[in-house]
């Protein structure tokens, strides 16, 4: 059973006057511990990036870059073909932009979490993941990479020594492989059912797949999406359920550093 867990959320996912989802970032920010901030290619713009970093910093929430494919029309959930160099350079460009806004507000960029179709492509593409991790080792060797356990991204990071945060997806379904079932429209899920799913993952280490199979799940952070309908109710029910089980919500850096210290003590 977990003693503490991080909650991360994709945020700043708008563009100019365009908005998606029915929750406001200002409402969600106080209920999470890590924010994945859109960096302009699938959503986000300079003013919104600046504002989202500002409110994350004000609430002590970890700031993360959330780069995606250059796909505003498709919200980054369509694969965009390109060479590995082109794709990684797009990612580097976006991370660099968010770093400057984080610098402006006096906070570090805690992590990088690719978005949507780019996240899934990296998860399956060993060569692309290795190039991504090589960039991280050069530019940000202490920055967390958010990924699914067992994915190509996870394995490349572990082999290279890049710190990782493995995710559990609260508002997405799982297949029997342990990967999320990619969807462009999650509808309006039941927040109580999601809370029960999260608690089972935290207490039993299991999740039920779309085929009705119970599979083990390993994770450090719970993810939900601000564009999911009912996102505010989802995170409220999750937090209430976690508190009822005696599970703390804490920044991922605090959790992982505490776990590392405990393992070191146990081995001494």
From TrEMBL:
Pfam families tied to this protein: LamB_YcsF
Name used for this protein in its record: 5-oxoprolinase subunit PxpA
GO BP field: carbohydrate metabolic process
Species: Rhizobium jaguaris
Molecular function in Gene Ontology: 5-oxoprolinase (ATP-hydrolyzing) activity
Keywords: Hydrolase, Plasmid
Cited SUPFAM superfamilies: Glycoside hydrolase/deacetylase (SSF88713)
NCBIfam families: PRK05406.1-3 (NF003814), PRK05406.1-5 (NF003816)
Broad EC category: hydrolase
Enzyme Commission number(s) from the entry: 3.5.2.9
Gene behind this protein: pxpA
């Amino acid at each position: 059973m977990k003693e503490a867990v991080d909650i991360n959320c994709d945020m700043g996912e708008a563009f100019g006057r365009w908005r998606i989802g029915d929750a406001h970032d200002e409402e969600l920010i106080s209920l999470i511990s890590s924010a994945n901030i859109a960096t302009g290619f699938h959503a986000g713009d300079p003013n919104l990036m600046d504002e989202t970093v500002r409110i994350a910093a004000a609430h002590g929430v970890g700031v993360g870059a959330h780069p995606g494919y250059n796909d505003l029309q498709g919200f980054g959930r369509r694969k965009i073909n390109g060479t590995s160099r082109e794709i990684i350079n797009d990612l580097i460009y976006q991370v660099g932009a968010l770093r400057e806004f984080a610098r402006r507000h006096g906070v570090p960029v805690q992590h990088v979490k690719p978005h949507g179709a780019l996240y899934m492509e990296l998860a399956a593409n060993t060569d692309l993941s290795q190039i991504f991790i090589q960039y991280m080792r050069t530019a940000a060797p202490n920055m967390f990479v958010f990924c699914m356990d067992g994915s190509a991204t996870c394995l490349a990071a572990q082999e290279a020594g890049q710190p990782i945060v493995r995710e559990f997806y609260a508002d997405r379904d799982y297949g029997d492989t342990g990967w999320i079932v990619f969807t462009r429209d999650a509808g309006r899920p039941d927040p109580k059912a999601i809370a029960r799913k999260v608690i089972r993952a935290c207490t039993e280490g299991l999740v039920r797949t779309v085929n009705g199979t119970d599979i083990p799940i390993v994770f450090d952070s719970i993810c939900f999406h601000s564009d999911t309908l009912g996102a505010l109710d989802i995170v409220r029910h999750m937090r209430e359920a976690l508190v009822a089980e005696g599970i703390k919500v804490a920044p991922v850096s605090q959790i992982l550093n505490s776990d590392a210290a405990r393992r070191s003590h146990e081995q001494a």
